[in-house]
User: What shape does this take?
Amino acid sequence: MTTYDDRASLTDLTTTAERIRRSVEGVIEGKPEVVRLSLTVLLAEGHLLIEDVPGVGKTMLAKALARSVDCSVRRIQFTPDLLPSDITGVSIYDQQRRDFEFKPGAIFAQVVIGDEINRASPKTQSALLESMEERQVTIDGQTYELPTPFMVVATQNPVEMEGTYPLPEAQRDRFMARVSIGYPSAEAELQMLDVHGAASPLDDLQPVAHAHEILKLIDAVRTVHVADAVRRYAVELVAATRSHPDLRLGASPRATLHLLRAAKASAALSGRGTRCPTTYRHSRWRCSRTGCCRRPRPS
Assistant: This one.
């Protein structure tokens, strides 16, 4: 049962999330579902993979979401010569102190934007595995905690594959959702010409929420009640992907957790303190498809 304090927390959540949504939609026109999914992943403590053709606003969506929240933001441009230490950090010997000093890498931020993640080598891509799953980095046997909240928003272009390295399944499985922005409608594209024609709307974008507010909203999402029958429904949904004839690899148990957390966040954004199967159906394909592989179709 949802208590009075829980209802108050959910009210604060929807109010703050609405401010963030309006801020992001001021930059990304005509894509309310994509913006809502981004918010859902943020509040569900997940990571987002934006996969689409060039020029549709993948990086701009990631930047708009990051700048709408007053927190630390780092952008990593993934290239073939990028090293794992550029992401995680490196220990440098200090001659004056006669000791090693750790220099944090770009992963030490609350929102990390990984642009064109599939252009880095698999060795560099694997540097994100520990960070995304355990929210920590281990260098030379020393573990360093990452700041909270922590979210990776990565982009990749699925069309131009020359000079790229496909993400391994272990990496894709760590993303809570994969989204495709798609081309805007004619009306949204006309509005984009008015808004983006003279200057970038990112230049005037100001934070509308603080990092400590996001942490409180995440705590409120955790209080959303899920009945046993709905939990079983989620397990059956994911289990069905493991026996589907068109899938070579079904969704993992981690995908079940992602589905549950995303559904709870989606319910909280709707102002509900409980979860129903209808909302699972809205969340399931975006969450579980990050860890599924289709069988090649016969030619």
